[in-house]
Amino acid sequence: MNYGERLKRLREDRKLSQQQLADRLNINRSTYARYELGQTQPDYETLQRLADFYEVSVDYLFGRENNNNLPGLTPKDEKDIAKQLEKIVEAMDSDTGLAFNGEPMDEETKELVKTAIKSNLELTKQLAKQKFTPKKYRKDKE
Length: 142
Prior knowledge:
By secondary structure, this protein is mainly α. The protein folds into 2 domains: about 5-60, lambda repressor-like DNA-binding domains (434 Repressor (Amino-terminal Domain)); about 75-135. Helices cover about 60% and strands about 5% of the residues. It is built from 7 helices and 2 strands; from the N terminus they run ααααααββα. It has helices at about 5-15, 20-25, 30-35, 45-55, 60, 75-95, 105-130, and strands at about 100, 105. A two-stranded antiparallel sheet has the order 1-2. α2 crosses α3 and α6 (about 75-95) packs antiparallel against α7 (about 105-130). The radius of gyration is 20 Å and the shape is extended.
């Protein structure tokens, strides 16, 4: 995902039009539209205002950081996720497993579903860590 797609997704997540966002940041709507299209890049000051507005890092906007300031996963977290994923995949392979339009899934589709489930398990773990870690133990110390 490039920076324009990230900007668009962040804006749409907040249910804002391009004009509303441009007004809040005091920039021209057409200029902002070109950012989302990837036709131009914001200057440093505008980039920092965008990052501040969306409460993300500049690195996140440019794709150098994928987790939107979420805590990282420990090896134990990854092991727990792998165990959960294994149980889910075993259930999918059983007689009562998943099917699409009444037909059993082919191996490629199962692999896609497995990847999506793993991604969601990782995100869920990161969100839980962010939400339930006491402030005094957080790296960012909000």
